[in-house]
Design goal:
The structure is a homodimer.
Chain A lengths: L1 E5 H15 L10 E7 L2 E7 L3 E8 L1 E4 L2 E5 H9 L6 E7 L2 E6 L2 E6 L18 E4 H12 L13 E7 L2 E7 L3 E8 L1 E2 L10 E5 H12 L6 E7 L2 E6 L2 E6 L18 E6 H13 L8 E5 L4 E8 L3 E13 L2 E5 L1 H10 L4 E6 L6 E6 L6 E9 L5
Antiparallel strand pairs in A: 1-5, 1-7, 2-3, 2-6, 3-4, 4-18, 7-8, 8-9, 10-14, 10-16, 11-12, 11-15, 12-13, 13-26, 16-17, 17-18, 19-22, 19-24, 20-21, 20-23, 21-22, 24-25, 25-26
Helix pairs in contact in A: 1-2, 3-4, 5-6
Chain lengths: ~375, ~375
């Protein structure tokens, strides 16, 4: 193996695959990155056996080859090299010689034969999503995913495939969010239509990082095969296992009609909830929301040892008065991912699911493709 | 107690005193901030028994009073209030009522009588230092202070008072720095002339945070009394105990003459040391620096399991060739606090102290008021 590439490209590739290897401590080979020349390009591969990533960069290849290089070492070394220089790489036995201007290093590597094969998709893709929309879906969906793994299906985001539409749902049983997105079906979409798939939250977090460095106007191509999901994001390919499990039939808990609907300034509500959460227990906190008339909403909380607080907010209300108790964290998580100046809150009573929807800043129409649902605390 | 002040001033005061209370867990009263009206101003006091801070802000006082308020609670509450609003405060018994526009809170407080008295200086101050210079002194001095407390005197910065000059020295026995600063003596300076004082590093870290939010062109007034040191920084007063202990007579280890003197680009040297430290053990790492001719310096390191590296840097040299071994961390710590494009390094041999000095970008003169000294590792 002998080649030349830019420090910038090499560093970018390493920084993407490095995130996967960093957490891996059981199998020593997984702390390495496989680099390999193929078709006039340099490929970087890493896997933690749950997620695999392959990225290709441009390189001037003089001699083909492949080798497994220690991820942490190469990452620290490359990131300290000057950005404008070229990197010359030459493999001698299992020692990789790297020259970059006045900097020279010899790195001890491992045999590429020991590196696990990262699966690639065999069939054609089923659908694609524009990168900026995919980022938004992931950001909003992760707001309500479960952080503990008591129920493994809640540690992922559930995708339900219908005609030209996918529903991304996540819940930890206390709150739930659902994002509806129209997609470009490929012909192969019929293979998955009417089915579901649960993607691990960790996979979506890694995908989100990749999308943040990708072109918003391009599309990510998605393929589901053999209980695995494959993403093609430009020159980056990512594969992840899916979660085995049956997602609960959550649609049936979403109410269709409401006794009360209010319009409220999102920023003011968020600020009042943050203040109220100061006067609650840090975990399992409780805040009280009271709607006593058509124009005001009161947020209240108290903690015996600390004191109490109350905020009066202006609202526009239709329907009945309400009085309910919530965990402030669930409300904060939801408000943090909602866009726009105002939001709508729909309520039936103090023990039925409460629904939050975004409102379009232009025209004031309710946005229907994302809903955030919170279960109140029964008093 | 009844008063009105701005959210901005109240928040700023809390954020300064809060840093002291946050770490305190033994005595419950120390988790509180004492607020007190005096001479038409509102005073905030906090102490962890090592460091005490008092800050005053403007307020419209209707009724005098004082009370101890829980630091964490008030800090979280106040920082979430809207910045442009006024805060109305009224004490009823031990409950503090705070109103700020639509936000209202009642906070349970503690009796102010239980709050420890924070000492204030009795005599006149001895000297003053301009704030921007004081920040620079602290930043540079903390680079070489000891992080473990095996020798308590090394956990502080030693001040030696001479005619119109103070020497700030710090060391952990592996490296040492000394900052010489001219000061404005007050008449009382003669009380401390020819003496020394060791200020805890923690005190200087807190002082540095305060100085970063103060006017660079104003001066901090310093007073030493009864084994305590007092700082007046505008409307903020800070007091700290001094460290009991005898600082070693470090001046005698600083060589007066050198066999080799080199001029080198600081940024390039720092980059090469960071790269070299990738190929060393994480603690007690060793890098080799070789000066083989008048124009080149080689930085080398190797680690059996990882590999090796070498960087060639351009220098201007006078004197003998050299070959020595250093812990890269000590060199990085020193280079990180040095100003200017180039630095001078003075060497005698592979087992004598090595000296780093800054070089003035304009004119290329050596800067003599700060030196950073590293002990090489004997091979």
């Amino acid at each position: 193996m002998k080649l030349v590439c830019t420090q910038e490209n090499f560093k970018k590739a390493i920084s993407i695959v490095d995130k996967i290897t960093a957490k891996q401590i059981t199998l020593p080979i997984l702390k390495n990155i496989l680099i390999e020349t193929k078709d006039g390009r340099l490929f970087f591969s890493a896997t933690n056996l749950e997620i695999g990533i392959i990225i290709k960069i441009g390189a001037k290849i003089e001699r083909e080859g492949k080798i497994a290089i220690p991820s942490k070492l190469i990452s620290e070394f490359i990131s300290n090299l000057p950005q404008e220089e070229n990197i010359e790489i030459e493999l001698n036995g299992q020692i990789l010689n790297i020259n970059c201007g006045k900097y020279k290093a010899k790195i001890n590597c491992l045999d590429s034969e020991d590196f696990p094969i990262i699966p690639e998709r065999k069939g054609v893709y089923q659908f694609s999503i524009k990168n900026d929309i995919f980022k938004d879906i992931i950001n909003k969906s992760l707001s309500s995913v479960s952080l503990n793994d008591i129920r493994v299906e809640f540690t992922g985001v559930n995708l339900s495939f219908f005609d030209e539409k996918i529903y991304f749902a996540s819940t930890d049983s206390f709150r739930l969010s659902e994002y509806e997105v129209g997609i470009k079906e490929n012909e192969a979409y019929k293979q998955i239509k009417e089915s579901t798939a649960i993607i691990p939250a960790e996979t979506l977090r890694e995908l989100s990082k990749i999308l943040h460095n990708s072109n918003d106007n391009e599309e990510t191509v998605v393929t589901i095969e053999n209980n695995q999901i494959f993403f093609d994001i430009g020159d980056i390919k990512m594969v992840s296992r899916l979660i085995n499990g049956k997602y609960p039939p959550y649609k049936q808990i979403i109410p269709n009609s409401f006794k009360t609907e209010i319009l409220i300034n999102k920023g003011e509500l968020l600020q009042s909830i943050k203040i109220a959460s100061v006067f609650t227990k840090k975990t399992d906190g409780e805040i009280n929301i009271i709607i006593e008339n058509d124009k005001n909403l009161v947020v209240k909380s108290s903690l015996q040892e600390s004191g109490e607080n109350q905020t009066d907010l202006l609202i526009e209300k239709t329907g009945e008065n309400q009085d309910f108790v919530l965990n402030p964290r669930y409300l904060i998580d939801g408000l943090n991912v909602m866009d726009g100046t105002n939001i709508k809150i729909m309520i039936n009573d103090s023990f039925s699911p409460i629904i939050l929807k975004m409102v379009n800043d232009k025209g004031g129409k309710t946005v229907d493709n994302f809903i955030y649902i919170i279960m109140p605390i029964r008093k």
